[in-house]
Specification:
With 274 residues, the chain is of the alpha/beta class. It has one domain: Spore Coat Polysaccharide Biosynthesis Protein SpsA, Chain A (Alpha-Beta Complex). It contains 7 helices and 11 strands. A hairpin with a 2-residue loop joins strand 4 and strand 5.
Length: 274
C-alpha cells in the first residue's frame, strides 16, 4: 500500500520549496554607482527598506562619509589603475568623462548584489520611493511567457525617430544576472572601443545589454538591428516616469549637476509611444 504519510510530507516539502523560490524572486538589491555624494548617502535608509545596498565608488572618495552606514551596506572601492584603458569619453562641465568608468563601477557593484533583481541608481541622485520600479519588475517577471524586461527611468529616454536604442541610464532595473552580464559586456565594448559608432554612452549600454539576451524566436543572441530598433526596444525595455516617484532628485551635466525636482519635456515616458 502507498505510504500516505510520505506523500503528504513530499507535497508539503514542494509547497514550501515553491514559496521559497517565489520569495527569492522578489528580492531586490540597490546599487549606488559613482563618486560619493550627499544626495544618495542621505537616501541610504530608504534604499535599505527595499533590500541590500551596495555603494560602488572610487578610491579617491572620502569614505568617512559612509561612517554611519558601514555595518549596514556593502562598499566597493574601485581603483582607477584597474580600469581597462578606453579612449572614448564624453565632455562635460568637469572635463572629459570616460564612459568606461560608469560601466566598470556599475558592473563591480552588481557583482556584490544578492537580490534576484537589481536597481542601479546614480550617486548624485536621490530616489527614496522606488515602488513603481519594484511593481514593474514583479509584474513582468510573473507574467507568463513574458520576455526579459529591462526597466529604466524616462530621464533622457529618446524617441526612436530622434535616437534609436537610447534608453535612460539614470535608473536601470532588471534581473541581476542580466544586468551583471550586460555591464560586463559594456566594459568589454568600451575596452574594444566599439562605442566609436555610438554618439551617446546610453546607446552603448543599451546595445551591450541586448547583446547578452537570448532571442528565443531566432535562437541566437540579440543584435541591435537599426531596422528593428522600435520593435526590439518595445519588446525588451519598459519605462517608469520619474513623475511616478515621490520626492526624487535627479541631476545631469547638461544642468550643471544641480538637484532637479521636475521632469523635463521631450522624454519618452511610455514605451508604447516610442
Amino acid at each position: 500500500m502507498p505510504n500516505c504519510g510520505d506523500k503528504t510530507w513530499r507535497l508539503e516539502f514542494f509547497k514550501d520549496l515553491q514559496k521559497r523560490f517565489f520569495a527569492l524572486e522578489r528580492t531586490v538589491s540597490i546599487v549606488i554607482q559613482g563618486p560619493l555624494h550627499k544626495r544618495s548617502i542621505d537616501t541610504i535608509p530608504e534604499y535599505l527598506k527595499y533590500g541590500d545596498v551596495i555603494v560602488s565608488c572610487w578610491e579617491d572618495d572620502d569614505m568617512s562619509l559612509l561612517y554611519g552606514y558601514k555595518d549596514r551596506i556593502k562598499v566597493v572601492i574601485n581603483k582607477y589603475s584597474e580600469v581597462p584603458r578606453s579612449r572614448l569619453r564624453s565632455f562635460g562641465r568637469h572635463g572629459p568623462s570616460p564612459w568606461i568608468y560608469q560601466n566598470y563601477s556599475t558592473y563591480h557593484g552588481i557583482k556584490e548584489a544578492t537580490g534576484f533583481f537589481v536597481i542601479k541608481v546614480r550617486s548624485d541622485e536621490s530616489y527614496p520611493d522606488l515602488n513603481a520600479f519594484i511593481e514593474k519588475l514583479f509584474y513582468w517577471n510573473e507574467l507568463p511567457d513574458s520576455p526579459t524586461k529591462i526597466i529604466t527611468s524616462d530621464i533622457y529616454f529618446r524617441f526612436d525617430k530622434e535616437e534609436p536604442f537610447h534608453p535612460s541610464d539614470h535608473i536601470i532595473a532588471g534581473k541581476r544576472r542580466n544586468l551583471k552580464d550586460g555591464f560586463r559586456r559594456a566594459v568589454f565594448n568600451c575596452r574594444a572601443e566599439i562605442n566609436k559608432k555610438y554618439a551617446f554612452p546610453e546607446r552603448l549600454i543599451c546595445a551591450s545589454i541586448l547583446e547578452i539576451l537570448w532571442d528565443f524566436d531566432n535562437k541566437t543572441y540579440l543584435k541591435p538591428d537599426p531596422n528593428k530598433s522600435k520593435e526590439i526596444m518595445q519588446k525588451y525595455f519598459d519605462i517608469v516616469s520619474i513623475s511616478k516617484l515621490k520626492n526624487f532628485t535627479w541631476s545631469s551635466s547638461y544642468r550643471k549637476y544641480e538637484g532637479l525636482k521636475q521632469r523635463e519635456g521631450g522624454w519618452c515616458a511610455n514605451i508604447n509611444l516610442l
